[in-house]
Amino acid sequence: MPGIQRKRRDDSPPDSAVRPVLLLLVGASGSGKTTFYECHLKTAFPKFLKRSSSPLEQTETDEELKRLLKIGESFVYQDVAFDSRLIREGKSARYEVKAVYIATKIRPSTSAAS
Question: Residue 77 has what pLDDT?
Answer without folding.
Answer: 98
